[in-house]
Amino acid sequence: MKIKAAVMREVGGPMSVEEIDIAPPKENEVLIKTVASGICHSDYSVLHGILRTPMPAVLGHEGAGIVEEVGPGVTNVKPGDHVVVSLSPSCGKCPMCREEREYLCMDMSKASGGSCMMDGTTRLKNGDETVYQLLAIGSFAEKMVIPAGCAVKVRDDAPLESCCLIGCGVTTGTGAAVNTADIHPGDSVAVIGCGGVGLSILQGARIKGANPLIAVDPVPEKRELAKSLGATHTIDPFNEDLKQAVKQITGKGVHFAFEALGSMKTIDDAYSILRPTGEAIIVGVPNLREKYELPVANLFAEKELRGSVYGSSRPKRDLPMFVDWYMDGELKLDEMITKRIRLEDVNQAFEEMSRGEGARSVIMFD
Ligand SMILES: NC(=O)c1ccc[n+]([C@@H]2O[C@H](COP(=O)([O-])OP(=O)(O)OC[C@H]3O[C@@H](n4cnc5c(N)ncnc54)[C@H](O)[C@@H]3O)[C@@H](O)[C@H]2O)c1
Ligand SMILES: [Zn+2]
Ligand SMILES: [Zn+2]
Questions:
Q1: CA 280 to ligand 3 center in whole angstroms
Q2: Which CATH number fits domain 182-307: 1.10.3880.10, 3.30.565.10, 3.40.50.720, 3.90.79.10?
Q3: Among 64, 67, 259, 288, which residue's beta carbon has the most beta carbons within 10 A?
Q4: pLDDT, mean of residues 180-195
Q5: How distant, in Å, are the alpha carbons of 73, 138, 193, 238 from that of 247?
């Protein structure tokens, strides 16, 4: 079957929109008709070689759609089901899944390294050429074959064109605030970087009762958006002294500082604004070959530094729960969507992301 997809052929891009072939799902795989895909900064990092994939590859991993066909052995979804695509195949068998840490499912690391299905092959081709699918997904395409465990059924009345954000940014961000961190009402929280992920962290922290809730972003529109989504204070890190400004608001630094950009500078910023016993939670993904040096004295103020991957989520539990929170009006998704675009406009959306414009662009398929 032929489908239209945005294909990365060289580092730095641009991606080309091509007609490629998609094969039917094999055992424990499902074919999804993509309804919508958000554009996440991780796609940008892959396109620019900060994170790696074999090429040519269909990028995109923040998808939602409708199941069209299931391969042998699939029992969790059936044709017609509405699904949000999870980044974790949640195999249920590996040591991490058995510990209920599906966000670290060992199949997920397999998928993220090779951009292949679990058997090491892909379902995409252009003529004789193998086309890889980022994270075993590849949602910048009209259809995708994904591991069955990545297809998480959600309620039929939830609009998939907004719920696609739950596939990555929202689960990563809101999950970091409600799963990774242990925020209590009245705890002080700062979020550094207010794109789709940062704004989702902010909303999770608001739901947990954080106060003050400080949004840090150099782009004025992002700070305004952060306020409308629950920030009590905002800081422009390019024109204010971040440490001083946080001290002024909190007295001695924050209980939790979340980094949601993926740069060594902002990781350092997050650690530097903690109060004694505070926790810096790094959600942004920098170049994975980087090293970070810790001021040893801070260890004796019991300051902690930890990463958070995929919001420490259990996808089958959390994705439908975040959909419910959205439908109940607690989690605002539409407000985070700056633009709805066609697949052909994907390169322009990446350029806008590089300038910090807009929170989320969503590609619509019809
Ligand atoms: N840990 C995970 O599981 C996981 C999952 C998904 C995405 N991510 C990562 O999360 C990060 C954020 O993704 P996103 O899609 O929200 O990105 P984004 O590009 O939409 O947002 C980044 C934001 O940071 C702001 N910014 C730029 N410089 C800044 C500075 N010096 N201080 C503060 N803010 C600054 C930008 O204005 C923008 O609003 C990326 O690194 C992405 O790869 C991690
Ligand atoms: Zn992502
Ligand atoms: Zn597993």
A1: 27
A2: 3.40.50.720
A3: 259
A4: 98
A5: 56, 43, 19, 17
